[in-house]
Amino acid sequence: MSTVTVSKRYAEALFQLAQEKSIVEQLEAELQIVKEVFENNEAFNKFLEHPRVSTDKKKQLIDKAFDGFVKEIINTLKILVDRHNEDAIPQIVDHFATLVNESKGIAEATVYSVRELSDNEKKELVEVFKQKLNLNNLNVTNVVEPSILGGVRVKIGNTIYDGTLKGRLARIERNIVSANK
Q: I need a labelling partner for 55 at 20 to 30 A (CA). Which of 40, 81, 130, 173 fits?
């Protein structure tokens, strides 16, 4: 099973548990710490991935490292260790955060532009897409991409809204080509 599939399943299961027990915010905060540990602590990861270290020792490390965390997180980490899926943990956390944001009506957007957008321009984009997509909030990350001649390209989830000059020219070209057939 792919890491993406594994991460989505575990994230969805954790999210359901968190909702049932009304601990979504606590779980989200603790999962961010878990992600940081797994991404930034090489020795920790090497220990968990070492083939000669017993599964029991690995689980003891999980217990010590995340002492005081919600039991759902610790149990999930132990299951992932049992199944040798430790590498999926950062993706699980990211997918969990996405589920939390979706439940709150919040989306993440990446806006590609030829220059850094001003605060007012970002606010205008946020307002337009909040109304268009019926969201409560939109978190915008601006990426400067010099290959864009003008306008902006907005990526929200798996959807891209291309308002660039290059995109418009490509659409005009397709219309001309299809009209000549």
A: 40
Is the alpha carbon torsion for 53, 57, 61, 63 positive or negative?
positive
Q: CA 95 to CA 10: how far, in whole Å? A: 9
Q: How do residues 1-45 score in pLDDT, each as one tens digit?
A: 677 888 899 999 999 999 999 999 999 999 999 999 999 988 888
Q: How far apart are CA 162 and CA 155, in angstroms?
A: 9
Q: Exposed, middle or buried by CB within 10 Å (0-12, 13-18, 19+), for 136?
A: exposed
Residues in CB range of 93: below 8 A, 6 or more apart: 11, 31, 32, 34, 35
At residue 131's C-alpha, the angle toward residues 120 and 156, to 5°, is 80
Angle in degrees, CA 110, 115, 116, rounded to 5: 60
